[in-house]
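Quiz preparation item.
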């Protein structure tokens, strides 16, 4: 007697697999804020589970606190990057994954379900190389900080430069441009955006800045004076090559005692 294949097996074998994505969170001494970021990120991922299957990779960028333990407690994959540099941390995260879609979120940033759904919807069309979005702070700001945020928003939208707090991209694009430029200690997200735009042009793909804001921490306003922030912005604008020096980028790598 000829045995027919199990009809349940046939039915299951024909079920298409859900698209897969990974959220990469670089983290240096983020024990305090990482739990909140992971909580909101996981909630947003659950809300879009009908669209795609995702997971989180936290890159412990040589932390001296419980950053790695916090990530493990939330059942996240932890990757260790010993060199304290944001570009290397981000690259270590996506290179440790095999998902076709990569989303970068900072450790002090809250990702909404609406933003995640919109980004995935665009990525899954396979017609978009990368997406960024606008940024708002988690509290009211003094006038000088409000000015810088509005200025960045205008620049980001007009030049299609992504903010590092949220970037969604295709793996093949990241592979084509070799990810973030590790010669820079800051502005690496801008250089990635420029490289991906060139790649997208050859593939006839779009690059977008969405208008669903991501919420990030305003803690640097407390850590540094308006003069220190202004000095960094002026140097970054007039002498971008100096961002290849760590000492120029102290506002990104210093963790004051008052954090």
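Solution:
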């Amino acid at each position: 007697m000829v045995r027919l294949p199990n009809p349940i097996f046939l039915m299951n074998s024909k079920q298409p697999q859900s698209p897969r994505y990974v959220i990469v969170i670089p983290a240096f001494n983020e024990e305090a804020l990482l739990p909140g970021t992971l909580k909101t990120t996981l909630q947003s991922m659950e809300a879009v589970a009908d669209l795609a299957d995702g997971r989180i990779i936290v890159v412990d960028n040589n932390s001296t606190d419980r950053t790695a333990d916090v990530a493990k407690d939330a059942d996240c994959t932890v990757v260790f990057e010993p060199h304290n540099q944001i570009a290397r941390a981000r690259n270590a995260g996506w290179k440790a994954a095999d998902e076709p879609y990569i989303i970068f979120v900072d450790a002090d940033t809250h990702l909404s379900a609406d933003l995640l759904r919109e980004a995935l919807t665009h990525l899954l069309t396979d017609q978009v190389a990368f997406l960024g979005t606008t940024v708002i702070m988690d509290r009211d700001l003094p006038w000088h900080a409000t000015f810088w945020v509005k200025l960045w928003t205008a620049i980001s939208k007009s030049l299609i430069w992504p903010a590092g707090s949220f970037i969604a991209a295709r793996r093949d694009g990241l592979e084509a441009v070799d990810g973030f430029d590790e010669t820079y200690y800051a502005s690496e997200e801008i250089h990635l955006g420029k490289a991906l735009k060139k790649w997208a042009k050859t593939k006839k793909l779009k690059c977008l800045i969405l208008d669903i804001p991501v919420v990030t921490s305003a803690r640097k306003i407390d850590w540094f004076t308006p003069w220190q922030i202004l000095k960094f912005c002026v140097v970054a604008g007039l002498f971008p090559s100096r961002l290849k020096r760590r000492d120029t980028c102290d506002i990104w790598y210093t963790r004051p005692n008052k954090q």
